[in-house]
Amino acid sequence: MPAKQVFKVIFINQNQIYEVYAKQVYQSDLYGFVVVEDFVFGEASTLVVDPSEEKLKTEFENVKRSFIPLHEIIRIDQVERRGVARILPMGEGGGSGKVTSIYPPGRK
After folding, report:
1. Domain residue ranges of the chain, discontinuous segments joined by +
2. Fold of the domain built from segment(s) 6-89
3. Other Cβ atoms within 10 Å of 6 Cβ, number
4. Own/partner long-range contacts of 46-53 (Cβ < 8 Å, ≥24 apart)
5. Tens digit of each residue's pLDDT (9 = 90 or more) over 45-77
6. What is the rounded CA–CA span in Å between residue 47 and residue 35?
7. What is the C-alpha separation between 86 and 73, in angstroms, rounded?
8. Tens digits of per-residue pLDDT, 7-52?
């Protein structure tokens, strides 16, 4: 029996870097968005609880699917197993921490 696929999705949200795990990731019918659904989080019965993962778990608790703007996606990886979902401050996600706007000057 093949192992279930899991995707690690890293994206920018409100000047923070979100790293989440999901079973489904695909291009949306809404132009410029990526759909992330079936979020995967750690079990509540584990002894060590990561507050960052708990915050994400609460934030996405009742979310069936999330539409993330394509320009906010940093990376999507298909992984062997789920890691710890987390929120990082800008600059700690392996990047420079600088975000270049795709909008022309004076327009947003």
Report:
1. 6-89
2. SH3 type barrels. (2.30.30)
3. 19
4. 50/84, 50/86, 52/84, 52/85, 52/86, 52/87, 53/84, 53/85, 53/86
5. 455 566 778 888 888 888 899 999 999 999 999
6. 32
7. 15
8. 999 999 999 999 999 999 999 999 999 999 999 887 654 555 667 7
